[in-house]
Every structure is written in C-alpha cells, then in structure tokens.
Design goal:
It is built from four helices and seven strands. It is globular and about 40 Å long. The protein is of the alpha+beta class. Helix content is 35%, strand content 20%. The protein has a four-stranded antiparallel beta sheet, covered by helices on one side.
Length: 113
Amino acid sequence: AILRRVGPATTDNLRLVQGDISIEPGSRSLFRHGQPVQVTATEFLIAELLLRSAGTVVSTEELTEKALGRRLTAYDRSLDTHLANLRKKLGPADDGSPRIKTVRGQGYIFLVR
C-alpha cells in the first residue's frame, strides 16, 4: 500500500556516469574520479542536462530555459559564464581534451569517451 501511494520508481535518482564524471541527481552531487566537486545549483543543472544527453548537442536555448529558468535573450552571456566555471571545476579529460565542447550556433555537447 505504501509503494502505491509513493508511486512508481523513477530513473531520475539513478547515478549518471560518463567516464570519470558521475552525478547523483537525488542528492544533487557531482563527482570527478570519485571525489566530490563543489558546484553551484545552476552548474549542477547544466552538468546534469549535458550528461543526460552525452554525445548529442544540447541547444543554448534549452540549457538557458532549464538551467537558468528563463528564455534566452540577445547578448545574454550568463550561460557562458556558468559553463566556463563548470569547465574549470571539471578540468580536462584524462587525455587532455575538453569535456564540454561548444558547437557554434547550436549549443554544447558533453563529449563521450
């Protein structure tokens, strides 16, 4: 009866893993090589969106709407600032290549290794 009231289990709380980066959405935790990485709420949302769509481009509009909670406007550079901070905190991949790539005019992609 309790399980029926709680509802069906969702996959939202499962750990997302891409290489040495992992995210636990339930506890809103981000890890690199198993070590916690301190990120802001916005940086966490961006990382989660990119990891859920790893290997495919996530549009700038979608990231702005879902992570920042507003529509993208002309000359709005706040998403770029959050991404730059996230890139610094995650560092490069083990082979020295970037983890997050900008796809000019489209959005961003978390590169699959």
